[in-house]
Each structure stands twice: as C-alpha cells, then as structure tokens.
Amino acid sequence: PPDGGWGWMIVAGCFLVTICTRAVTRCISIFFVEFQAYFGQDYARTAWIHSIVDCATMLCAPLGSLISNHVSCQVGIMLGGLLASSGLILSSFATSLEHLYLSLGVLTGLGFALCYSPAIAMVGKYFNKRKALAYGIAMSGSGIGTFILAPVVQLLIEQFSWRGALLILGGFVLNLCVCGALMRPISLKEDRKSVPEFLEQDHVPETEKQDLKQMSVCSPLIKVWSHECLCYCSWKEYDFLLMPGFMVLAVSVLFMAYGCSPLFVYLVPYALSVGVSHHQAAFLMSILGVIDIIGNITFGWLTDRRCLKKHRYFCYLFAVGMDGLCCLFLPVLQNFPLLVPFSFTFGYFDGAYVTLIPVMTADVVGTSSLSSALGVVYFLHAIPYLVSPPVAGWLVDTTGSYTASFLLCGFSMIFSSTLLCFARLAKKIKRTHLRSLTSDTGMKQHIWTNGAMAYSVTAELDQKDAEFLAVDTNSCSNR
C-alpha cells in the first residue's frame, strides 16, 4: 500500500461518502414531525421510514462488497449514488407513507449500502502503516456531517417544505458519484497471487488443484468453484460463530443496537413536545454529531494508553451502560438547557463504544477472523434498527408519552452491558477454578515423581527451566 499519495484522495472520498450516507440517514429524523403532520399517521407507522433505511443499509452491505470485489469499486459506488439520489427525489413526490417506505426506505437504503462498505474497504487497500489515522479521518464524516446538515435541513424544510428539502438532498447525495470516480483501483501483490491458499490443503484432489490453478487467472469467482474448497473456506472464515464468547457478544449487540436506535429518531420529536423550538431541536442533533466525533477520537486514544489498554473490555461496558443511564434520565429533562448536557453525554459515550466495537470483536475471535466477524456484528444491527423505532412509536401512541420508550431503550443498553460483564466474570471464575485444579494435579504428580525421572524429563528443556523443575521435584520428594 502506498500509505499516502492518491490514498489521501481516497480518504477524502470516503469522508464524503460517510457524510452522504450515515449523516443523511440521521437527519431523516428531522422530517419525522413533517411526515406525521402531513400524512396524519401515528408514531409507529411513521417510524418505519427511518427503520427501513437503516435496515436496508445494513442488510445489503454484503451486496455492495460483492459488486466492488467482482466488478469495480467505482461502478458500485456510482450505482449506489444514482439509486440513493433517485430514492430521495422520488420521495419528494410521495403521496403516502407506503410510497416513502419504498422510495426513501428501500431504494435509498440500497444505494447507501452499495456505497458505504466499498468506500471503507478501499481506504484499507491504500493504507497500512497509517491505517488508523486514515480511518479516523474518513469515519469522522458521520459526526461532522450531522453537525452541519441538521440545521441546514431544518432551514430547507422551513424555506421549501419537506418536499423541496428532500429534492435538494437528492441532488446533494448525487455527489456520491463523484466520490466513486475518486476510487481509483489499486493492484497489490497479494491480489496478484494466482494460487489461493486453500489449494495447498490436503483435502483438495490433485486434479482439482491443477484445474483451479489454470482457471484462477481468469476470474476470482472460479477460484472457489469447487464445492469442497468453498465449504472449507466458509468454515475457516466463520468457525468463530460457534465460540461461546462470540455468541454472548452477538446477543449483547442485539440489545445494544435496539437501545441506541430509537433515540436518534425521537430526540427531535421529544424536544418539540416539551416546548423546544425547531431550531433548538435541530441543534441538539448537531451537538450529538460533533460530540460523537470527540468520543471516537478521545476515548480511542485513552484506551490505547498503557494504564487502560488491559481494561478496554470494561471501558466498553462502561460506555454502553452510561448511554443506557442517559436514556433512563431523559424523560425528566423537560427543557432545552437540560437537554443540551444530555446530548453532550449521550453523544460522547455513543462515539466511545462505537470505536471499541472492533477492538472487542478482535479480543473475542482473534485478528485472523476479525474481518468476517465484524461483518456479522454489523449485520446483527439490521434487525434492531428495523424493529426498535416502530416499537418505540407504538409505545408513544399507546401511553401518550415518551417515558416507556426511553426506559425500554435504557434498560436494553444496560442489559447489554450487564450481560457482557457477567460473561467476563464467569470466564474469570472458570479460569481460576481450572488453575486450582491444575495446581492440585501438578502437586500429586510431584509427590509420585523421583529425582531420576525428573532429570530425564528435563533433559529436553533449557537449562534454566531444568534447574527450576529439578529443585521443585527434590523438595517434593524430601517432603
């Protein structure tokens, strides 16, 4: 990887992609009140719009990776930009919520999915030594874009109505095509290897090895045409799914994603319901975006320090738990001066635990399976993103207040943190128990071992370990 040069243009392109995808998705919540008032629908039905956008973006992310790997990253991002822009433009002519479900939800979400993952993967191809810095700059587009777009979108709604605002956003998202044009493909040494690693495995017949070696130059898809090779590669890539630690992490991610999603949808409507002005409510979303970036950078830097590096697991639990506590206290915050500290606190810890998700996943499954495991972890966000906003809206319609919705979100995130905490404590207790059993078994073996046997065993060890074992065995024999 060049670690610079045109790679910085790739970073700039990915930065703009995150603005046009994740920041625009967050700003859709500003349209919530307008959609509800214009179509005369309840909270639950209106919330499906934001849910479908997030769910489609997560569910179709593997499709974006497939197109970029086997066609071109430029083609994938440009196609995604056209689809996302078309979805927003068609949404400006919507006559019903069902129309918005298809145009703003499915079509725009699919376009975002084709752009998001290929752009992030391209940054990893251009950078190796400075990969963390490159990703930090590229991913900061989500928070910075939210800070800028939230008040701009509110201003556009006031000046041109929600239809005009969606039309202008459609033109803005069309810049994804420009970002796609920046993604110049690069050929690395590992990409030019003609013989895949699984051809060296013993279970592959020699005839299939020769055929695959000859065909591997033609197309990367033919490399895994053999059924046995495909099964072997799939098992090696996803064998972490049966790990108990990853199963616990997956369950906790489901509850964490359920708790964090509704707040981005209902923060603006809740602020308006307690008497906050439209500009102040949009400003709360801007605060969330900026503090999210500060949480990403500062919490990541802090947990890389020597004093906290060994405790990053509990730092992640602390961040998720703090966000849960913020949701529990939100119903008692009834004015703008109290909602501003909430936005600061929730935004900071939201950025904090998002930064530590890859670190947590690497600690559980190891570095070799990190790429596949992260794909599964982010894929698990899709179902909670789809379900949680409508459920929260149904609770608002049923109870007439936001209290039940925010309490459910808070307890969900606290349960996610508590589940991982108990899992770590159980693992620690099990290790302590095994160590005690091992030490007891080792003592019994020392009692029955004489000096001659000890020296014959230690003959193959280095001198230092041999002397230690000999002294220990002699002391046991004397006793």
Automatic annotation (TrEMBL):
GO terms for molecular function: transmembrane transporter activity. Its main location: membrane. GO terms for cellular component: basolateral plasma membrane. The keyword Transmembrane applies. Keywords: Cell membrane, Membrane, Transmembrane, Transmembrane helix. The gene is Slc16a12. Belongs to the major facilitator superfamily. Monocarboxylate porter (TC 2.A.1.13) family. This is Monocarboxylate transporter 12. GO terms for biological process: creatine transmembrane transport. Functions as a transporter for creatine and as well for its precursor guanidinoacetate. Transport of creatine and GAA is independent of resting membrane potential and extracellular Na(+), Cl(-), or pH. Contributes to the process of creatine biosynthesis and distribution. Gene3D superfamilies: MFS general substrate transporter like domains. It is found in: Basolateral cell membrane. It is a multi-pass membrane protein. SUPFAM superfamilies: MFS general substrate transporter (SSF103473).
